[in-house]
Design brief:
7 helices; six-stranded mixed beta sheet; 11 strands; alpha/beta; globular; five-stranded antiparallel beta sheet; binds adenosine-5'-triphosphate; ATP-binding
């Protein structure tokens, strides 16, 4: 499956956030999006998902235009920046609701093996993030959108999530953004930088410095 997003124009009042955006992602590939604070990364993911309306947008899957919000096609899932599992839900209930086997999760993250019956709001911010990222990654959807999956995670958990992303990409198209650019660079097959409302396909990492996303000499 190849998904392409094109022709987006997003304004808030008369402030232009995105214009001249193009992104291509496909099954078996991880597509990274980088950009400084406020550059429009989250808005872009919400527009792809279909939860944020823009003035224009064109989404194509395998060359066919998708005219309704992508989430209505049942092909996409999305990890937002905020928590999406309600506070008062027990972990085992959350896994059941999203149809994700608990056993696989505790196999990968043993530290949770006694936590099946605890409520989501009894976990730390990083633990919640880890569980939500796992649930989104393991869903049976073909397109996965991840908005800052690494924030609040400790280094070992970041490595585990990266491994999981690499495993899942075999059957999914994964689009990911995070400020931990080194991890994005590490796992991405292609990288787009959002700058001045436009996406720029990065062919050489040095361009991240040229476009002043990183300060000069960072990559030396
Ligand atoms: N509902 C809204 N109303 C008005 N402006 C908004 C709204 N949502 C986002 N914006 C603005 O759009 C711009 C892009 O926001 P977005 O959240 O997409 O940035 P981002 O690249 O994800 O930033 P960060 O890395 O800091 O999370 C910002 O200037 C933000 O203030």
């Amino acid at each position: 499956m190849i998904i392409e997003i094109d022709n987006i124009e997003l304004y808030f009042k008369d402030k232009c956030i995105l214009s001249g955006v193009y992104l291509k992602s496909e099954t078996g590939k991880i597509t990274g999006i980088l950009g400084s604070n406020g550059s429009g990364k989250s808005c872009f993911l919400k527009i792809i998902f279909g939860s944020l309306k823009s003035k224009y947008k064109l989404v194509r899957i395998d060359n066919k235009p998708i005219l309704k919000p992508l989430y209505l096609t049942n092909q996409v899932t999305y990890l937002p920046q905020h928590h999406f599992i309600p506070n008062n839900v027990k972990l085992k209930t959350a896994f059941k609701l999203f149809n994700i086997p608990w056993a696989g999760f505790v196999n990968a993250f043993e530290m949770f093996h006694l936590n099946k019956n605890i409520h989501f709001n009894r976990l730390s911010g990083g633990e919640r993030r880890l569980i939500e990222t796992y649930i989104v990654l393991k869903s049976n959807k073909k397109i996965i959108l991840l908005d800052e999956p690494f924030s609040h995670l400790s280094p070992l958990h970041i490595e585990k999530i990266k491994t999981l992303i690499e495993e899942e990409k075999n059957k999914k198209a994964i689009i990911i953004t995070d400020h931990m650019y080194n991890h994005i660079v590490d796992i991405s097959d292609s990288i787009y930088l959002i700058k001045n409302g436009c996406t720029k396909l990065i062919n050489d990492l040095k361009e991240l410095e040229d476009y002043k996303y990183l300060s000069a000499g960072t990559l030396n």
